[in-house]
Every structure is written in structure tokens, then in C-alpha cells.
Amino acid sequence: MSGFPEGELTRLLRAAESGDAAASGRAFELVYQELRRIAGAQMSRTPPGQTLEPTALVHETYLRLMGRDDPRRSTDRRHFFAAAAQAMRDIVIESVRRKGRLKRGGGWRRLDVDEVEAAGRVAEASGGDLIALDEAISELARAEPRCAEVVRLRYWTGLKMDEIAEVLALSVPTVERDWRFARTYLFARLTEES
Amino acid sequence: MSESSIQQARLVFDAVVELPAPQRSGAIERLGESDANARIIVERMLAAHDRGLGRFLEASTPWAAHLGDDGAEAAAPPSRIGSYQIVRVLGEGGMGVVYEARQERPARVVALKVIRSEFPAPDALRRFEFESEVLARLQHPGIAHVYEAGLAEVDAGKGRHPRLPFFAMELIRGRTLTDHVRVEGTNVIGRIDLLISICDAVRHAHQRGVIHRDLKPANVLVDENGRPKILDFGIARIVDPDGEAATTRAETGQVLGTPAYMSPEQIVGPQRDVDTRADVYALGVILYELLTGRPPHDVKGVGLAEAARRIRDEDPPRPGSLAPGIARDLEAIVLRAIEKDRSRRYGSAAELSDDLQRFLNHEPVAAQAPGGWYLLRKAMRRHRAATALAAGLTVIVIVSAAALALMYREQSRQRSRAQSEAQKAQDVVATLQAMLGAANPESGRGRDYTVVQMLDDFAADGRRLWTGRPDTEATVRQTMGAAYRGLAEFDKADEHLRAALDLRKAEFGEEHSSVAEALVELSRLRHLQARYDEADGLARRALDMRRRLLGESHRDVAASLDQVASNLQAQGRYADAEPVYHQALAMRRELLGPEHPDVAGTLNNLGLVAQHRGDPDAAETYYAEALRIRAAALGPLHPDVAESHFNLGSLHHARGNLTEAERLYQSAVDVNASVFGPDHVEVAWNLTGLGSVQRSLCRFEEAERTYRRVIGIWEKSSGRTHPALAVALGNLGNVLVDLGRFTEAEALNREALQIQQRQFPEGHPGEANYRANLGSALRGQGRFEEAEAELNRAHAIIAEHHPPEHPRFSTLYGSMARLARDRGDLVTAESYYGQVVPRFAKERGPNYPTTLLHQAEWADVLSRLDEPDRALALASDADARARASLSDRHLVRGDTTLALGLVLFRSGDDRDLAQAVALLEESLSVREAAFPAGHWRIGESAHALGRALARTGARDAAQVQLEKAATILEGALGPDHPETREARASLFELSFESGANSGGT
Fold first, then answer.
1. DSSP β-ladder status, B96-103 and B174-176
2. Is B437 helix (H, G, I), strand (E, B) or coil?
3. What is the CA radius of gyration of chain B?
4. pLDDT at B434
5. Which residues lie across from B97 on neighbouring strands?
6. DSSP secondary structure string, A125-177?
């Protein structure tokens, strides 16, 4: 098992909840490290050409850090997944930056509408798209923080709608509406002429 | 884009998105008036929305691209895993990594599969152990053998060493099934033959309760001799017992491996419902592919949800449409095997293979029977034998699962024999009961339909079911034999276990692991029957065979060593048993790691040996270590932990730490009651310990209640026939002797003896206990001749089974000493006490209550033999020890004060007389507090006190005591009992002396 005491994360998350910034940082670090570790382990066993499934990764991390049977408080879950989404984002964005794939110049790179069918691979095509996407999400977060949260959970941790609803303590239709707006908005932003 | 523009856009977008385009414009116009940017973005969004976003943001992030460097780092194979030397990576998959690895002992090359997931919960670990045990027992030429499974530390890089489950399996060098037939150009008949062989292997596993769940051509290798071997049998379930991973994958749409071979119920239904027919489906798919070159559903590259839909809803193309020239009969067989509704498939791999064989023999096939499968099944139902055959298979799968559960228990808990047998019986029985109960609701069996009767019924049915299926017959008989053995129906157990052994030999030859297993089972029976020489012979044969088959170092070899040692132990050959246990211990530690529960099992047995050979300190060390391992590995609420508490309790009990013993026994009771429920036989055994310590604490009425509860449990579980019931009756009888209820005690011990004689041959060691107890009950009634006969018989039996230094002799000599004393043969009594007291002091310590009691009795006898000095020394010592080590109200204080008082009284010295009176008064008050009113022991003390008072001249006080004594003794023992007569004589003497005195004045 991992090299930190069981329940440690829950403790940190609760401290973070009550405003302890150091605990918040430490909790994030914990999630981050564990995600990296598990992702690395999964990678080593994934045949070349196959991709890792973020859902499995995040769920495995959750089980490791939060335990399987203990019914945790929903706020703990929420903080965990928020941290996980952030960690997943950081891992990938860092990697993209490190590998020098930063292609983006001034504006948005244009996505051909014809490419739309393959737009699921928006992030795969080049690192620049990921950076653009990340920045667009940040922009959205300032105006519609809940929508951005839904996108992060959906995209970075692969949670399903009902899971997001549970984590954010919202109804499923609300999450679906948020998702529809956010996804369409981001798509429109990313396909915008510069 | 400003925040407020986005917020504006949000409001408008949500409001209009579902409206038809013409109705949207008003809102958009209005928005444009206040925020032009917002209007532009909304228009772009609506355009995108209407066109469709494809899978934008819906697909996974490409982790591979971003984590590749870290991944490569972790992928370097470790040089060792557990005791295996890693040679190279053979392959990697969703479950984990497979290495080629070298094992040193036995020297062989294995395929080592290390599973990715760690186990978060202890019960998952237990399940893993259990299931891997099951897999290790799957031995079939068509199944890659699992040699060993366990947890091993794996160097995962970065200083992390997680303990991951691994399987060491037979390494097969060959091609996958599909590669093989393609390269060899195998013709249709050859392909069918291959599938028949595969079916046969699958059948073997199904009969042992193991479902593959992931059969596909990639999991079937064909070796250089052209024989197919199935890999990874049952591993899917171990790795992912609840099918959670599959479910998650289904929901997220990720395809792991290929679902093409998964049956509809497996792909969409709850995993727990998957049964052997899922494997039949997969066999059908493999056959389809062997014949047509592709699986029935093309699900390559589609998501799991879509794959599931196709598999569930779409009819596959007829094989003949893909590969012209396939016979209609063969096509029918394939389609039958891959029916979507499993009740319409072949019920088993055997049925599929039978039908293929019929096809090869040009006989009509079942799949093409006129009117279809349903009509055929109906026709079968008209023929009982055929139906029984079909039904039998389900039954057998259930039974085998139970059998495997038993074997697991046997392996993992080397507990005291009777205990585990009883446990096993209850397990089997619960399964059978559920099964028969469900099958037979109208049978009208009442509550008194005992388990034995049920097994008998099942055996009668079984004979019909297994005819002509020797493999099935062997499995079922072995299971039933074990069940009968657990129920102490030894003759029936004998019949089944011997038959199973013969069948195994006929099937596999003299030398096979299944034969070894059958020998082990039979040896256990002989052990319980106390036919230790035979038990030993069988166990050693199994051991030798396993050594030849599995090598010197293997967990089955360790288990056999443990069994050989336990036979030696039962014969009192502790010095012989101990080194063998140590061998088993070393092997288990090496193979399984020092913290494995099996290691604790052997430590526990070593503790038993140490305890019996009189080394309680060593015993305590072993027990404590066993307890530590078990508590850590299994958690506090586990029967093995309860066993360790129980054994530690018995150790403290023997040492005289009675309150600690009581605490430990009670904790064993609590654990097992919480695991099994309060009326379970495990609880009964623990209560037996609790009762005995209550008796030692002289809380006789409490002990009586405890034993009656034990008796109730045994009666409920197995009627009035189980040897354990006899033990409980004997124990209760002992308490009643303590309480002076000798006739009741006699009746109980006679019943116990009857049960014993029904189950065991004359001269079984258990018999000695009941005869000795019976002797005490008879002695209490003054029936000395009969008592002597029983004690002599007990002595002969014990002498036959135990060396002279065995503690059982000590207890028996105590009874013989008392008998001699009571019948007035003081010289004989003294010579017995001269042995008993030092033996007890050595075995249980000088301050142990029974030691002190016998020492006091010895002093009393010596003083009556006119050896006042020795008597005084022993009595003073006993009394001083009792005062120092026992509570004031302890019953034995009544005995030591009585003895010392009597010794002083008899010495005739007036100075001692006052002290004697004080001691005897103390004795009386202890006994009055400890015993119920009217107990003869109170009478005994009153009698002694009366006589001492008479000597001091306090005649009135003496008269009161002597009259009380006479009344109590007459009431408790009858007017003709020697104690009563003596009390009457003392009273008469007092009145005579009074009369003489008055006459003299």
C-alpha cells in the first residue's frame, strides 16, 4: 500500500475545508503523487497503442487514498475529486510543457469544422490544443465556476454525469445543463477564428 | 471574453437552445443590444450545437503520450519475486504481468503471473487464498496447473515494495489455438477434436466448482504434442471477484481485451449470476471461430456498450453462410452452444462435447433433435436416469464447491481434529441442507430430520447420479466421506473414502496428486478412529507421493508433514512429532512467508505438543506467536484467532491461572459466536473450555449450566450420536460428581459411554474418560467393586495408548487413590497419592488447586496410617500454599483446612487441638459458602468439627455439629453410606461418653 497512513487524506481534506491552506496543499500533493504512481504502474502494463482510462486511474487512486468501504462524507468525496481533477490536469499540462510541444502562438488554433467528427481527439492532435483548452476552461471558471468544475471532473477524471452530480451535490439535469453549456462554449471558443 | 459576457451567454443559450431556430432570434437580438461579444459567442455555440459536437471532450485523455517516460521506468522487470528468479517478461495484459521465472525447489521453470491490484481488505485476501487453493487442486492435462499462489513483495521502483498477489503456473510452450490451426492447417475433424479436448478440461474444472469466465483462443495454448492447455482457469474471478472492473469498463465504454467471447449474461448481467454456462457459451464461440475463421459477433473496435448490444440483440450469421460446407448438424451444435438464453444452451461442457462426439460418430445430435431442445429435455424427464444425470451435474458443482471449502479449511486451519471435522460437517451440511431443502420442499421432513439422515438420503440419490461417471463419483464420495467423518459416522465415512481412493487410482493410476489427496482424507478418518498406525501409514504414503510429484518443498508436502506429525502427537509420541512439525514449519515459512496463517497453524500444533509434554513456557511462546500472526493476517474476529485464545486459555487453565483462562475461553466463545452464531459447534467447543474452568473455580452450578448449553448445541446439530456430545455428557457428569449428585452423574456417563461405544471400537482412548468418570460416580455411591472395575478398565485403555508419564495417568491415579481410601485400603491409597501429588506438581505446578487437594488427601491418609510427622508436613505445606495462592472462598481451602485440622486433631496433642478446631470451623464455613445446602461435603466438615469439639469437652457444640453432619450425610448419601455410618457412630460415641460421665457422678 501507499506510504502514508490511512485516513491521512481525509484528515487533510477536512482541515483544508476549514481553511487550512497548508493542509490543502498537502492533500493535493498526496493525490498528485498517488495518481502519478498509479498512472505509471498502469502505463507499464498497458500494451503500446492502448490508452489509459482516466476513470480507472482516478477510481483506483480514490480507493487507495480514501478506502473502499468506509462511507466517507460527500464533502470529502467532492474535495478528493476536485484535487484529482486538478492533479490530472497538472500532470498532463506539465508533461506537455516539458516536452516542448507548446505550439500556441497568439490566438486559438483553428480547428477545421471537418475535423469535428474527430474532435474527441482535440487533445491528442497536439499539445497546443490542450493548453488552449486548459486556458479556455480557466476563463470559463471565472465566469461560471460550476460549469468549469463539471468540465474538469468530466474531462480530467472521467466521471460520469451521475457521479459528478453526486460529487457536487447537484441534480443530474443541472449537471447535464452545465455540461451542455460548457462543452458547447469551449468548442465554440476553440474553433473561433483568431 | 469577459466574465459578464459569458454569464449573459449562458442565460440566453440555456433559454433558447431547445427552441426551433426562428423562435431563438428575438432573445439573441436583445442580447446583442446589451453585449455584442455575448451575442457572437451564443450564435457560434448554437451553430455548433445544431451541427453536433461529435465526441468533443468525451474521449479519454491520451495518457500514454504524456506518461510514457515514467511508464518505461516502472516496466523494468524485477530480478526476483518472492522465491522466484525472473527470467523475462512473457506478456502483459489488463490483469498484470506474466514472467518466465525459475523456481529453485522444486527446480522448474514457471509462468509467474503477478496481478496488478493489491488487496485492500482482509476478507479479499482470505478469498484470494481460498480460491487459489481451489485452483491449485485443478489437475488436468488440459489445464495449465497452478502450482502456487500467494503474495509477494514486488519491487515497483522508487522504493516501493507492494505485496501483490501472484500465481506460479505451469509454463506452456506453444501457440494459441487459432495460430495453431492456421499454421498446421488442421482440418474440421481435427478442430472438433481439439474442442472436445478443451471441453473435457473445462468439465473437470466445472465439476470442482471453478468457472473460467474468460475463455478465448488466446487463453488456449496448443503444446508441441498438439494438446490444448487452458490458461488462467478461474483467475478472472480471483482478480475481480465481483466483476467490478468489467462493470466499470462497460459503463465507461472501455474495451478490455475482447468481449467477443463473453456471453450475454456475462456482459450485461450481475457477475455473481454467471455460471458454468458462460463457459459453455465461450466454448461455442471458440468452435464458431475454429469453423468460420471469425467469432459470431464482430465487435472489434466498438465500445463495450455497443458490443454488449450486438451480443445481446443480434443473431450471429449462420456458420454455414460464412464457411460453406459445414454440416447442418455441426452448425446446430455451434448455435446451440451460443444461444443467448443460457437455459437453451448445453447445460455443461460435457453435453457439448458429447454432442460433438455424436457428430463425429455420425449419430443423431441432441442439438438437432426433432422438435428442438425443449422437447428433448422433456423426453429426458420421462427417463429418470437421464434426468438425474443432467440434474446431477448441478448438484455436483455445488457439492464440489463445498468440498473445496472443506479442503481449504483443512489446509488453513490445522486445528484440533474433532473440532475441524465438526466444522466441516456443518459446512457441508449447510450446503446440502439448502440444496435438498430447495429441491424437496414437499418432503415433509420435520425438525428431527437429522443431518445424518439427510446425507443418507443424498447418498442413495447419489448412487443413481454418479453411475458411469467415475470422476464425479470420486469427488462426491470424498465429500460425503468427509461429511460423515465430521458427523462421526465412521463406518459410512470409511465406505465412501475408500471408494473415492479406489476410483482415483483407477482414474489416475497409483501415483497422482488426487490419489494423495484421497489418502490424506482416509488418514484423517483413521486418526479420528484412533487407528493411529493406519493413519500414520496412509499419511506417510501421501507424503512420499507428494514429495515425488511436487518436490521436497511444496505447500502440500508441508501439509502432509503436519498431518504425519499430528498422528505421532495423538499417540503421545511427542518427541517424534516435534521435529516433523518443525520441518513443516520451516517449509511453510519459506514457501508462504513467516506471516502466513498456515505457519500459525503449525505453530499452534507445536504449542499443543509442548503443552502435552509438559513445557508450558514453550507452549505459550508458540501459541502467542500463532495468535499474533492470525490476528494480523485474519483480523480479530476469525475462528483461528478464537482457537488461539482457546489454546492459550487451556494453557493458563493447566497452570492454574484460572481467571486469565476464563477470560481467554470467554473471548473464544465471543469470537465464534459472532462469526457463526451462538448455537454453532465451534462455540460448543469453546464453551467446553469455559465450563471446565468454571468447574476448576468451583463454580459448579455455573459449570453445570454451561455444559447443558453445550449438550443442547450438539443435540441440535447431530442428534444424540456425536462423540462430542459424549464428551459434554461426561463433563457434566464430572460436575455432578463435584455436586455430590452421583446417581445423575452415573447416568450421564453411562450414556456417554454408549455413544462412545457406538462410534468407536472397544478400547478407544476416549472410552477411558467415561469409565474413569463412571468410577468416580460409583465410588460416590459406595459401589466400590463396580467403581474399581471401571477404573481398571480405564487404566488398561490409557496404558495401551500412552506412555507411563502421560498426564492422563496422573488424573486416573487420583481417582484410584480416592477409591482405595474410601474403601479403607489406606496403604494402597497412600502409594497412589505418593505418585499423584508429585506428578501433578510437575505437570500443573505445586499450587494448582488439584495438586493441593490431592496433597491434603494424601496427608489425611498418612495421618490415619499413623504417620503424623509426614502427614503434618504435607498438610501444613498444602494449607500454607492454598492460603497463599487461592482466594479465601476457594473450595480447595475447605479441603486443606480440613486435612490439616484432622491431622492436628489426630496427633492427640492438646496444644494442637484448639488450632484443629479453628481450622475445621474454617473448613466448614468455606464449604457452607461454596456448596448448596445439604451437600455431603458440608456434612463431612461438620462431622470432623464435631469430633474435635467433643475432644475439647464442648459437648453441646459437638452434638450440634454431629447431628447436623449425620442429617446432611444421610440426606445426601443415604443411610448406608460409610460416611453416614461414621457420623452416626461419632454421635453415638458422644452420647455414650456423656452417659458414662453422668453415670460416674
1. unpaired
2. helix
3. 38
4. 40
5. B92, B114
6. H-HHHHHHHHHHHHHHHHH-HHHHHHHIIIIIS---HHHHHHHHT--HHHHHH
For residue A49, name the pLDDT band (cuts at 50, 70, 90).
Answer: very low
Residues of A in contact with B62 (CB under 8 A): 51, 121, 123-124
DSSP letter (8 states) at residue B571: T
pLDDT in tens, A137-148: 988 998 899 999
Residues of A in contact with B6 (CB under 8 A): 139-140, 143-144, 185
Mutation target vs A (from B43, B50, B53; most A CBs, 10 A cutoff): B53
The range of the structural domain enclosing residue B424 comes to 383-490
Residue B418, pLDDT score: 33
Asked if B22 is an interface residue toward chain A (Cβ–Cβ < 8 A), one would say: no
- Within 8 A of B116 by CB-CB distance, chain A residues are 41-42, 45
Cα distance between residue B69 and residue B72, in whole Å? 5
- By Cβ distance, the residue of B7, B72, B116 closest to A144 is B7
Tell me how close the Cα of B201 comes to any Cα of chain A, in angstroms: 30
Are B295 and B204 part of one and the same domain? yes
The β-bridge relationship of strands B163-170 and B146-153 is antiparallel
Return the pLDDT at B774: 94
C-alpha cell at B503: 476410483
For residue B122, the model assigns a pLDDT of: 56
Angle ∠(B177,B181,B184) on CA atoms, nearest 5:
130
How far is residue B66's CA from residue B85's CA, in Å, rounded to a whole number? 32
Q: In angstroms, rounded to a whole number, what is the distance separating the alpha carbons of residues B260 and B338?
A: 12
- Considering chain A, tell me which residue range(s) the CATH 1.10.10.10 domain(s) occupy: 101-194
Asked if the model's pLDDT at residue A100 lies above 70, the reply is: no
How far away is chain B from the Cα of A43, in angstroms, using its nearest Cα? 5
- Cell 448419601 found at: B973
pLDDT band at A78 (very low <50, low <70, confident <90, very high): confident
Q: Is the pLDDT of residue A59 over 90?
A: no
pLDDT of residue A75: 66
3-state SS track over B727-770: HHHHHHHHHHHHCCCHHHHHHHHHHHHHHHHHHCCCCCHHHHHH
Residue B198 lies in a domain: yes
ipTM field: 0.78
Please give the Cα distance from A8 to A15 (Å, whole number). Answer: 11
pLDDT < 70: residue spans in chain B: 54-55, 58-77, 91-96, 116-128, 130-131, 155-160, 162, 234-258, 269-273, 300-305, 363-472, 476, 486-488, 530, 572, 614, 656, 675-677, 680-681, 717-719, 993-1001
Which among B337, B359, B379 is the end of a domain?
B379
- pLDDT tens-digit series, residues B786-833: 999 999 999 999 888 778 888 889 989 999 999 999 888 999 999 999
pLDDT of residue B948: 92
What percentage of chain A reaches a pLDDT higher than 70?
A: 60
Give which of B896, B912, B892 is closest to B904, Cα–Cα: B912
Per-residue CA distances from B480 to B262, B397, B435, B483, B699 (Å): 35, 14, 14, 5, 42
- Which is it for the CA torsion B712, B718, B724, B726, positive or negative? positive
B174 forms bridges with which residues in the sheet? Answer: B223
Q: How many CB atoms lie within 10 A of CB A171?
A: 11
DSSP class of residue B487 equals T
Residue B771 lies in a domain: no
Q: Are residues B410 and B349 in the same domain?
A: no
Contact check, Cβ <8 Å, A52/B54: no
The dihedrals phi and psi of A20, each to the nearest 5 degrees, come to -80, 105
Mean pLDDT of the A134-159 span: 87
Amino acid at B836: V
Is the CATH number of domain A101-194 3.40.50.2000? no
